[in-house]
Amino acid sequence: MLFNVKPRMDEPEVQEVLACAVFPDPEEIQAVMETYRRNESHSLFGYASEGDLVAVAGFRAEPQRKLVIQHMAVHPHSRGAGFGRGILLEMLEAFKPKQIIVETDEVTVDFFRNVGFRVESLGISASGIERFQCIYDAEAEE
Fold first, then answer.
1. Could you say which of 3.40.50.150, 3.40.630.30, 3.40.50.970, 3.20.20.30 is the CATH number of the domain covering 2-141?
2. How many CB atoms lie within 10 A of CB 55?
3. Domain extents for the chain?
4. What pTM was estimated for this model as a whole?
5. Which residues contact 58 (CB under 8 A, 6 or more apart)?
6. H-helix or E-strand spanning residue 107
7. Which keywords does this chain's UniProt record carry (predicted)?
8. Which pLDDT does position 24 carry in this prediction?
9. In the chain, what percentage of residues exceed pLDDT 90?
10. Contacts (Cβ under 8 Å, ≥6 apart) of 118
11. Is residue 47 within 8 Å of 2, Cβ to Cβ?
């Protein structure tokens, strides 16, 4: 079940799951939360299973019904159970985007590729990590 967690960002369980998508530094997590607080165009939704928060997705809506995912994470204890795919499917149903875009690294690019995203390399970042842009064309699937 998808639900808005933006009003609950100060709750430890929300911060714990969001921290899985952010460099694990308390200052970085606070900076990310502040971005969601200050920007109405930024949404933060959670995905629950049996009453527990198991995943979050933070995104911004852009013109032409595009969603740009900025943060997405599944709690480590819940990985491999389909919750990442579940939160994406719920986002497609709830927001009806034409396209979903996410930038990621080598660690999670295969997840996006496996759920139907088109993957393009953005090259090596300044930190020496290859980055990828993943694009899902939702209307092509209808």
1. 3.40.630.30
2. 27
3. 2-141
4. 0.90
5. 18, 21, 32, 36, 42, 43, 44, 45, 69, 70, 71, 72
6. none
7. Transferase
8. 73
9. 84
10. 134, 135, 136, 137
11. yes
Give the burial string for 5-16 (b: 16+ CB within 10 Å, else e): bbeebeeeebbe
The structure tokens listed for 36 are 């969601």
Q: Count CA atoms within 13 Å of residue 97 on its CB side.
A: 20
**What pLDDT score does 127 carry?**
85
| pLDDT score for 140 | 56
- pLDDT the model gives residue 17: 94
Mean pLDDT of 21-36: 88
The answer to whether the Cα torsion of 131, 56, 47, 65 is positive or negative is negative
Spatial contact of 60 and 81, defined as CB atoms under 8 Å apart: no
- Locate all alpha helices (DSSP H) within 20-79, ordered by sequence: 26-38
Of 104 and 141, the one with more pLDDT? 104
**Per-residue tokens: 137:** 């064309």
